[in-house]
Amino acid sequence: MHNRSDAVTYSNASPTLDVLFQRILARQPDALALLDPLNKPRITGQPPKRLTYAQADRAISALAAHFIESGLPANSVIAVQLPNTIEFALTVLAAHRAGLIVAVLPLLWRQAELTVALNRTGARAVVTSGRIDGVVHADIAMNAAAECFSIRHVCGFGDDLPEGMASLDRAIAAESPTRRTVIQDGRKAALVSFDVTSDGFRAVPRTHLSVIAAGLAVSLESDVPQGATIMSAFAPCSFAGVVSSLTIWLLTGGRLAFHHPFDHEVLEREINEYECDTLVAPAQLALRLDELDLARLPKLRNVIGLWRAPEQVASSAAWSAQQASLTDVYLFGEAGLFGARRGADGSAAPIKPGPHGAPRELPGSSIAGEILLTPRGTLGLRGPMVPVAAYAPPPPPNDSMIASPPRDYVDTDYSARLDRATGAVHITAPPSGIMAVGGYRFLAQDLQEWAKRLGQGALLTALPDRMSGYRLAGRAHDNARARDALSELGLNPLMVEAFRDRAGAA
Asked: How much of the chain is in helix, strand and coil states, percent to nearest 5?
C-alpha cells in the first residue's frame, strides 16, 4: 500500500505541481508515468528508464530528503541545469516537495551566464548532469558555484562526478525517509526563469498557480485528452519548456516521454514506440514533420508548436495533416504565452485583442488572460500567468514629482498593429535591440562588447535566420584563437562557434 508522508500539508484551494502529482499517484500508482529518450546513453551516458507513478514518487521523496539533509532551508532557490530526461521532472517535483524554488538554467549557458544567474537569485544549490552531449557540465557548474557566495551544495546525476559534487543517483538509491513539514500552497513561488529585455538580464519568478494557469491555457486550447501520452521535444529550461511538458503532463494524468532535441529519426521512433498521441515541439520542427508526411506517425493526434519568434506565425506554411491538429503557441520571452488552434484550412488562426479563455473561443475567461495593444504600438499581456511585478518599469528619478501609475500588464516590446478590416492583431517585429538564436536571447550591444575583448579587427554579428530568428557569425584575424579566448571567458557556445572556420566553395 502506498502511504505518503505525514509531513506535508495540502491546500485544496490552491494546488501545487506536487499536489497534482499526488492526485494522479493516488488514482493509478502502477501506471506508467515517465519515459526517457531512447538515445539517453549518448546524451548523458546513462541507460534510459521507464518509471511508474509509484516509482517516480519514491525517487522524488529520496531526492527531496537529500535536499533537506544537505541543509537547504525551505523557500531557498535551487538552480537546475539538466537535459530533457526523466531526471529533470524528478528534480523539479522533489525540490517542490522539499519546499524549494526551482530556477531553470538553459543548457547553452556557460560559466559567465551561470554565475550571473546564481548571484541574481541567491541560489543555495545547483543540480546538473556529469556530461550532456559530450560537454562536461559538472565542471562548469562547479566553477560557476565557486564564484557565487550563496551556493552551499552542488550535486549531479551520472558517473565520474568531480570531487565535491554529491551524487543524486546514490541519493535515489538510498531512499532516505527524511521529511519536513511543507505547506503545499499554490500561491507560493515555484519557478524562476531568466529573460533579456531592453533593460537587460532579469530573473522572472512565478507561483505554482501561475505555472498551472499557463498549462491549462495550452492544454485546453490544444484539446489534449486526459491520459494522453505526451512527447516533449522542447528544451525544459524556460517557463514555456516547463509548462508545455511537466505541467500539461500533470494536468492530463497520462505519460510524459522525453526527447532531447534533436534527432529526427530517433524522435519518430520514440513517438511510434511509445504510442504518443501528443507532440510538443518547436513549431518549425512540427511543420517540417508535416512536410515529411505525418502518416508515418499513425498514433499522433495533437501537435503543439511553440514559436520563439511569434512574428513568424502569420506567414508560416499551412498545416496539411488531417490526422492531427496543430496549435500555435506564441512565446514572448519569459513574460507569457497564448495558444491558438488552427482551423480546417490549416492556416494560422486570427488573434483578437481582449480577454481570451482556454480554449480561446470562450471569451471572458480569467484562466488564460488578455491580449492588448499598448499606446506604444506593442503587444501587452495580462492575466494569471503573467508576472507583472517582474517586468515593472524602473522607478522614476528621486527628483520626479509625478510617479507613473503602476501597470497591470507586461509590455512584451513586440511591435503589433490592429487590422481594421478583420479586427485581428498582427505581430510585426521582435523587440528592438534584442537578438534571439533559438531560445537564447541577448542584447545586440553585448555582441560588440564581447568582440572588443578579442582585439582590433574582430567582428561578431547576428544575421537573420528563418528557422531560429538569428544566427551568429564572427570574424577575427585568427578564428581558432578567438574560439579559445571566448571559451576561457566562459561564454555561450553559440558565440564561440560563430568564429568557426568556413571552407571556401569548391
From this structure: 30, 25, 45
